UniProtKB/TrEMBL annotation:
One of its GO terms (cellular component) is plastid thylakoid membrane. GO terms for biological process: photosynthesis. InterPro entries: PSI_Ycf4_assembly. The gene is ycf4. The chain crosses the membrane at residues 21-41, 61-83. Pfam families: Ycf4. This is Photosystem I assembly protein Ycf4. It comes from Pandorina morum (Freshwater green alga). Seems to be required for the assembly of the photosystem I complex. The lineage of its organism: Eukaryota, Viridiplantae, Chlorophyta, core chlorophytes, Chlorophyceae. Belongs to the Ycf4 family.
Length: 180
C-alpha cells in the first residue's frame, strides 16, 4: 500500500518489472549470444573452441541462439511495457473503486475499471495450495451480479500472513464482509 489516507487507499501492482524477469531476460540473452557465436563459428569454419565438427550441429546451435535471442527480446519488451502492472484504488471520498492495469500495446493497452463502492458486496480470499501451481493465493473483489475481480498481481505470490492481513484491512476499510 503506497497511500495510507483515511479516505483513499492505493495498492501498487508490480507487473512484469520484477527482479526475476530482468535476471532471466539477461541470462537468456547472454546464453543465446553464446549459442549464436558457437553455431556461426562452426558453420563458417572460424575458430572452433567447442569442438563442433558437424555443419548440422552448428546450424542447430545457431537456431537455438536465434530462438533465445527472440525470447530475450520478447521478455525485454514485456518489461518495458510493464504488462500487468498498475494499481487498485479504493476512494471513499468520491465513492468509487478503480482498478488499473497495463496490457499489451494496441487499442486496449489500458485496462481501467471503475465501480461504485455501493456495488461491492464482499472481499473474497482464494487459497488453493496444490502441487501443480505451487499455491494460488488471490484476493477477489465481489460485486453485485456475481462478478469477481482479482486484485492481486500474478508472479509474486504473497505469503499467507500478508494476504490475510491485506484482505482483512481492505474489508475493514470498505466495511464489507470477508469471505474465504
Amino acid at each position: 500500500m503506497t497511500q495510507n489516507n483515511t479516505l483513499i487507499r492505493r495498492y501498487i501492482i508490480v507487473g512484469e518489472r520484477r527482479f526475476s524477469n530482468y535476471w532471466w531476460a539477461i541470462v537468456i540473452f547472454l546464453g543465446s549470444c553464446g549459442f549464436l557465436a558457437t553455431g556461426l563459428g562452426s558453420y563458417f569454419g572460424g575458430q572452433d573452441f567447442t569442438q563442433t565438427v558437424d555443419t548440422p550441429q552448428g546450424l542447430l546451435m545457431s537456431f537455438y541462439g536465434c530462438l533465445g535471442f527472440l525470447l530475450s527480446i520478447y521478455w525485454s519488451l514485456l518489461i518495458f511495457w510493464n504488462v500487468g502492472g498498475g494499481f487498485n484504488e479504493f476512494n471513499k471520498k468520491d465513492g468509487f473503486v478503480r482498478i488499473f492495469r497495463w496490457g499489451y500495446p494496441g487499442k486496449n493497452r489500458k485496462i481501467d475499471l471503475s465501480y461504485s463502492l455501493k456495488d461491492i458486496e464482499a472481499i473474497r480470499v482464494l487459497l488453493n495450495d496444490n502441487n501443480l501451481n505451487l499455491g494460488q493465493r488471490t484476493i477477489y473483489l465481489c460485486l453485485k451480479g456475481k462478478r469477481e475481480i482479482p486484485l492481486t498481481g500474478i508472479g509474486q505470490p504473497l505469503t499467507l500472513k500478508e494476504i490475510e492481513k491485506q484482505a482483512s484491512e481492505l474489508a475493514n476499510f470498505l466495511q464489507v464482509s470477508l469471505e474465504a
